[in-house]
Each structure stands twice: as structure tokens, then as C-alpha cells.
Amino acid sequence: MSNRHQQHRVAVITGASQGIGAGVVKGLREHGYRVVATSRSIKPSDDLGVVTVAGDIGSADTARRVVDEALQRFGRIDLLLNNAGIFTAKPFTQYTLEDFEANISTNVAGFFHITQAVVAQMERQGSGHVVSITTSLVDHANSNVPSVTASLTKGGLNAATKSLAIEYAKKGIRFNAVSPGIIKTPMHHESTHEWLAALHPVGRNGEIADIVDAVLYLDAANFVTGEILHVDGGQSAGH
Predict the structure, then answer these.
(1) Distance from CA of residue 198 to its chain's centroid?
(2) What is the DSSP letter of 172?
(3) Each residue of 56-76: pLDDT tens digit?
(4) Opening angle at CA 165, ends 84 and 67, nearest 5
């Protein structure tokens, strides 16, 4: 492998066109990472250190194309950030079949296919790190925010994170999750920010930079695996 491929850590980021994903792309680039960014609607990047791949993350074909592009352009994959996700807050009996299938496709299949493809490459390298973005609601259900599909899917990712951390503990591959509270992104209209802030013991919503900091910490913390890192203003601790 050339020195060019050894000089920088290479990250794959899903759901990378806006919100947390776009923020993490920017944050990792500022720390010298090369990035392969994917989402349904992502546009080509002017930054030579960023390669974009448009596609549905719920598709195994998209996963293959992302991994192929990463290896072709940068020669390796050091970090996978499973950020793509959808959140549907509804009373349980009001979920439609379309709601259910969309949540399973993006949140579960969107984790499974890309993680499987990336981990196969990390096994060949003998090293790697996978971080998944979940939700603090998994740990503290809130009657004000009925969202069982988030608990069903993102809760599954928390459990899978621990399972994979143990399966790969001796193979040089770590698995962790970041479990956010409400982060100020385009997902939440400004008119809701004050109400959402009150859901957090610290009295404010999170910033995208808080998630970037968590990802950077976990990627540098070589003795940490199987961790669900709550970045939620204290929500998971209590109210």
C-alpha cells in the first residue's frame, strides 16, 4: 500500500448530506480524515478529500458501491459512522406499514449491509472502528414523544454494537455508539426548539459539534469498545 494511503484515516459516513452527517464530514476533514460520504441526495464535493456516493443506504448495492469507492480512492477504511436514520414519532397504533418498512429499511438494513461490507474490509486490514448513531429515547421512553419504531430499530443497534464489540474484540475492530438527545438539525423546526430543550435536564438542545466531539473521542479511545456514549444533556440519567 502506498504512503499516500497510510497518512490519513479514512472514514465512511452515511446520511452525510445534512444535519449530523454533514457536520461530522466537516469535523473529520478538519482533523485530517479522508471521507467517503453517502446519502440518497448527496452531491459531488469540491473537496478532493471527500468522495460522495449517492444511493439508498437500505440497499446492499449501495453498500458495495460505497466500499468499492473508498478502496479505489483511499485504499482502506478506518472508521464507519452509521449516521443515516429516520425518526417517526407517532402513537403505536397510528404507524402505517409504510412507516414501519421505511424505519426498518433505513435504520436496520442501512446498518446491516454497510457494516457487513466495511467490517469484511477491516478484517483484511486487521483494524477498524464502527460507530453508530442511536437515540437516548431507547434508555428513557418519554410519553411526550411516542416513538416505538426508534426504540425497536435504534435499540437494536445498541444491542448489536455490544454483540459485535465482543465478537471482534480480539480482531482489532471496535464497535461503539453515540446516543444523542435532541440535536439542533433541520429535522427539528426552530419553532419546536424551546419545547425540546425543556426535555433535557441541562435545559438546552445539543449542537452538531457535540456529536462530532463524541465521534472523535471514541475514534481515538483505543481501549473503549461496546460503549453506548450518551450525549443527551442528562436525559438517560433521569429527570
Answers:
(1) 25
(2) T
(3) 999 999 999 999 999 999 999
(4) 45
**pTM of the entire structure?**
0.94
Report how far apart, in Å, the C-alpha atoms of 238 and of each of 57, 158, 211 are.
34, 19, 20
The neighbouring-strand residues paired with 81 are 13, 131
pLDDT digits (tens, 9 = 90+) for 155-175: 999 999 999 999 999 999 999
**Cell numbers of 204, please?**
438546552
**Looking at residue 40, which CATH number applies to its domain?**
3.40.50.720
Distance of CA 86 to the CA centre of its chain: 11
Three-class secondary structure of residue 15 per DSSP:
coil
| 149: CB partners within 8 A, 6+ apart | 88, 95, 99, 100, 103, 107
In the structure grid, which three cell numbers stand for residue 12, read together? 465512511
Give the domain range for residue 228: 3-237
The owner of cell 457536520 is: 23
Number of domains in the chain: 1
